[in-house]
Structure formats: structure tokens, C-alpha cells
Design goal:
Layout lengths: L2 H4 L2 H26 L1 H23 L10 H25 L2 H8 L2 H11 L7 H19 L8 H24 L1 H4 L4 H25 L8 H29 L1 H5 L2 H16 L5 H17 L11
Helix pairs in contact: 2-3, 2-4, 2-5, 2-11, 2-13, 3-4, 3-10, 3-11, 4-8, 4-10, 5-8, 5-13, 5-14, 6-8, 7-14, 10-11, 13-14
Length: 302
């Protein structure tokens, strides 16, 4: 295959979707082993160290300007301080397939923020899409649990994941300001570093209670996948795509991520892949499509 296609943003987004789609099930293995908060904290400590090391190797200056530190603190709060604990705990309480589907609502958040910032025009059809997308989530939650998951556990888990989806959408939107100034690697690294500041008081207690015997091969493989592929490789590609094609187009790759996530959950955990899940996926996908259905350019007068 031609190298120019391999480096094309949309090809790279497919790769990211595959990595993050399987990430739901792979990370769940680690979460069920040592707990959601401990796993997230260890994951991003290792990720921050690895990414800063790679940053020092690839860029002469790994530092950011002092005046930008408050903004990175803000990004760290959104993308890691809030998003990671909500997502990981939601993943523990609910199904991995639900997590993949609900997180795909992030593009709706991006579009609504862009409209609020007067960067995009939102019409009735777009608002209908937001209603349909969130309706798909309501439908999923109303179907109750599956296997060892009670309806109440699924409800709590899905609500936490919905909060995570909103947080990730906000992070994706606001991170574009730093990606215009710094490289994707530097933006990601400093966002994670500051995110650990917020994760520390939330996650440290559970982390200190982890038994040494819990560090088995499956846990190491889960951590390695989450740190190297999901945090380093995929996150850098994600930031690059945000810079090249914009936040709204980038988060639209959640269409693929949700499908991969549902199939991976079925393969790894044997989660139900029946008409209810597929119908919920159809609602959410339709909502995303309607949200991104834009009027002709000439109709948009800012």
C-alpha cells in the first residue's frame, strides 16, 4: 500500500478505532483484576513516563510555555481527572459493549460546544440527532443487565460512562487549541501529566491496597496494551487528526470504534450480541449521522 494512504488521517483513524475498540475489553480484564481506579492510575503513571521519554527523544525541547500550563491543567482535568475514573468505574459496573456505544456520543458534545462557540450552525435536524443518539442510550440502559450484571449495576455504570463521554467530548474540542501550537505528542503528554494531579487523590487509596499477587500475566498484558497502544500510539494519532481535520471529524470515528467495541466484548466476554444491542447501536449511529448532517456552506452565515 502507498505510504501516503498509510499516513492519511482517515486511515489512521481506522487504526485508532481498532485499538480503542478492543481497548474496552482488554482494559476490563485489568479493571476486574485490581480495580478501576488503581488500574487507571497505574496505566497513566506508566503512560506519562513512557510518553515523556519518547518526547525527549523525538523533540529537542520537551517543555511547554509557562503561560500554557493553566490550559494544560484544564485539559488534564477534563481528559483524565474526570474522564478516566468515570469511564473505568463505569466499565466495571456495566458491559463493555455498552461502554463502547455510549462513548460514541462524544461527537454530539463536540458539535454542541462548537455551536455554542458560534463555530458551527446547528439546525433542527442536528438537534433531532442529539435526541435520537441519547435515546439510543436510554434504550440500552432500559434493557437491564446481562450475565452477572444486575439492572441497577448497569444503570449506574452507564450513567458514569455517559458522564465520561461528555468529558471526552469537551477534551477533544478544547485540546485543538494546544495542538495548533504544540505537537500531538507534547499536547498528549502534558495533558496526562496534569491529569495525574487530579487522579492522585481519587485513585491512590485503591492503588495502595493492590496485592502483589494480582500482578499476573493477563494484568501485565492489559496494562501494556493500554499504555503503549491505547495511551501512546492511539492518543498521538488522535491528536494529530484533531490538528489536521478538526475535532468534529476526528470524533466521528467513534462510528467504527463502537462497532469494534461491541464485537470485541462479544468475543472476549461473551456479552450478548442480540437485537437489543444492535438496535441501540442503530439509534446511536443514526443520531451521530443526523448531528453531523450540515447545511450547504452558502447557507451558513456566522
Amino acid at each position: 500500500m502507498d505510504k501516503k494512504y498509510l499516513s492519511h488521517p482517515y486511515f489512521l483513524l481506522i487504526l485508532v478505532s481498532l485499538i480503542w475498540g478492543f481497548n474496552f475489553s482488554v482494559v476490563k480484564v485489568g479493571i476486574l483484576t485490581i480495580g478501576p481506579l488503581a488500574f487507571s492510575f497505574l496505566r497513566f503513571i506508566c503512560g506519562a513516563i513512557l510518553m515523556f521519554f519518547v518526547l525527549c527523544l523525538t523533540e529537542r525541547n520537551p517543555w511547554v510555555e509557562i503561560q500554557d500550563l493553566p490550559y494544560f491543567l484544564f485539559l488534564g482535568f477534563l481528559g483524565f481527572g474526570i474522564y478516566q475514573p468515570l469511564w473505568s468505574y463505569g466499565l466495571k459496573l456495566s458491559l463493555a459493549s455498552h461502554s463502547a456505544l455510549i462513548l460514541s456520543l462524544s461527537p454530539i458534545v463536540v458539535s454542541l460546544v462548537a455551536f455554542w462557540q458560534k463555530e458551527e450552525l446547528v439546525e433542527g435536524i442536528n438537534l433531532l440527532g442529539a435526541v435520537v443518539g441519547f435515546g439510543g442510550v436510554v434504550f440500552l440502559v432500559s434493557q437491564g443487565g446481562g450475565g452477572d450484571y444486575s439492572p441497577l449495576s448497569v444503570l449506574y455504570g452507564d450513567l458514569l460512562t455517559l458522564g465520561a463521554a461528555i468529558s471526552w467530548g469537551l477534551y477533544s474540542y478544547f485540546s485543538k487549541n494546544m495542538v495548533k501550537k504544540y505537537s500531538p505528542l507534547k499536547t498528549s503528554t502534558w495533558s496526562i501529566i496534569w491529569g495525574l494531579v487530579f487522579m492522585f487523590p481519587v485513585c491512590i487509596r485503591e492503588t495502595l491496597t493492590v496485592n502483589r499477587g494480582s500482578f499476573t500475566l493477563p494484568l501485565f498484558l492489559s496494562l501494556s496494551y493500554a499504555v503503549v497502544l491505547s495511551s501512546l500510539v492511539a492518543h498521538i494519532i488522535w491528536m494529530r487528526c484533531v490538528r489536521e481535520i478538526g475535532a468534529a471529524r476526528t470524533v466521528s470515528s467513534q462510528y467504527i470504534t463502537q462497532v469494534v467495541g461491541v464485537v470485541a466484548a462479544w468475543m472476549v466476554f461473551g456479552e450478548p450480541l442480540g437485537w437489543r444491542v444492535l438496535l441501540g447501536m442503530a439509534f446511536i449511529s443514526l443520531g451521530l449521522w443526523l448531528v453531523h448532517k450540515k447545511p450547504p456552506v452558502e447557507e451558513f452565515v456566522p
